[in-house]
Amino acid sequence: MSALYPWQENDWQRLQALRARPPQGLLFKGNKGVGELELAINFAHALLCQQPHSSGMACGTCPACHWLSQGAHPDFRLVQPDAISLAGEETETGKKPSKQISVEQIRELADFLSLSAHQGGKRVIIIYPAEAMNHNAANALLKSLEEPPRDMLFIVVTHKAQQLLPTILSRCVAFNLTMPDVATATAWLQTQGVKQPETALARAGFAPLLALQGDAQTGLDEREKLLAALRQPSVLDVFSLAEMLQKTEQVLVVQWLQQWSFDLSAMKLAGSVRYHMQDAAAIKKLVAAVEPLALARLQKLLQTAKREAQHTLNPKLFFESLLLAYRQLLTA
Ligand SMILES: [Zn+2]
User: Fold this and answer.
1) What is the mean pLDDT of residues 284-297?
2) Structural domain contains residue 79
3) Separation of 54 CA from ligand 1 center, angstroms?
4) Contacts of residue 204, Cβ cutoff 8 Å, sequence gap at least 6
5) CA 193 to CA 207: how far, in whole Å?
6) How far is the CA of 158 from the centre of ligand 1 (A)?
7) What whole-number distance in Å separates Cα of residue 138 and Cα of residue 249?
8) By residue range, what is the domain housing residue 51?
9) Each residue of 199-208: pLDDT tens digit?
10) Which among 141, 84, 151 is positioned nearest to 115, based on CA atoms?
11) Fewer Cβ within 10 Å of end Cβ, the chain: N or C?
12) Tell me: the pLDDT tens digits for 3-54?
């Protein structure tokens, strides 16, 4: 059991309201990296704990909490792909761990479902992430959801609800996770030692846990230099900038360019930005004389570039052509 993240207080309160009569299927819908699994686990623990705190959180000291911390509570199951549970290690047979939830994993729940609760209370199954279920697994789960034992709660966690069977969706009560607010998430990242928390957060699509991962923080210097150049397209030195960038991962650079380009369009069309809040004024000035069509072309170009970025042979040339196109479109 871990503490809630600071942006989850509201969601936690909403869960408490469900607590007296939890539904049999609960669909957690939210973005990746906002602590969606942790919230589900906290809720499961809280339901199984024998003496929860007044906040609703599990006590962490009762026998039930002890079993949970050992991964040995008989009334709790967490179903996830081997790729997540093994955390990058190989399987026993030396195969690459699967990214899918297999039908066998769901069928293994059958015994669990056929028994009644050891502790005479609730039983909880978490499926994470539900879109990792292959077709057969999803159908097998559906059978269980159709006639769940009375004491059973399924928490189905998903980042892509549109990929789930409509029949699964219709058997669950939807619970939309709140997106962390930027100020709270930034403050939290700071306590985690992230040096440029706002930048890392924006780069991670505003998912704080993704912002904490290494790849949201690598190349920050390169990104700063790139952005400084993008702010002044008329004096942008394409060749030296491409040379500076050539050792940075291409996909990452294209992603920075896409976020920048997104903000240019967003400012032009809606008067606001999403990723570069400190640059809002500069962006407003920059796009004032630019045609919306040019910005649309830029976005299109970067979409294509994103696909090409995976297999460019000459990164320097690749960046040169992108930066040239950028300079042309913004200064035409
Ligand atoms: Zn407890």
Assistant:
1) 94
2) yes
3) 12
4) 33, 210, 211, 213, 216
5) 16
6) 27
7) 36
8) 6-179
9) 889 888 899 9
10) 151
11) C
12) 899 999 999 999 999 988 889 999 999 999 999 999 999 999 999 999 999 9
* Cα–Cα separations (whole angstroms), residue 224 to 230, 246, 247, 257, 295: 10, 15, 15, 12, 22
**From ligand 1's centre to the CA of 34, what distance in Å?**
25
Q: Is the dihedral of CA 87, 81, 210, 326 positive or negative?
A: positive
161 Cβ neighbours under 8 A, 6+ residues apart: 27, 29, 169, 174
> DSSP class of residue 93?
T
Do 134 and 274 share a domain, yes or no? no
d(CA 324, CA 75): 60
Hey, is 176 helix, strand or coil?
Answer: strand
* Cα of 35 from ligand 1 centre, angstroms: 21
pLDDT surpassing 90 at residue 141: yes
Does residue 93 carry a pLDDT above 80? no
Residue 49 CA, ligand 1 centroid: distance in Å? 4
Instruction: Return the minimum-mean-pLDDT range out of 93-97, 218-222, 258-262.
Output: 93-97
The CATH number covering residue 318 comes to 1.20.272
Give the pLDDT confidence score for residue 214 in this predicted structure. 66
98 and 17, same structural domain?
Answer: yes
pLDDT of residue 260 exceeding 90: yes
Long-range contacts of 56-59 (CB under 8 A, 24+ apart): 56/12, 56/15, 56/16, 56/19, 57/1, 57/4, 58/1
Q: List, for residues 16-26, the tens digit of each pLDDT value.
A: 999 888 899 99
Could you give the CA distance from residue 177 to residue 166 in angstroms, rounded to a whole number? 20
Give the residue from 183, 204, 139 showing the smallest Cα distance to 165.
Answer: 139
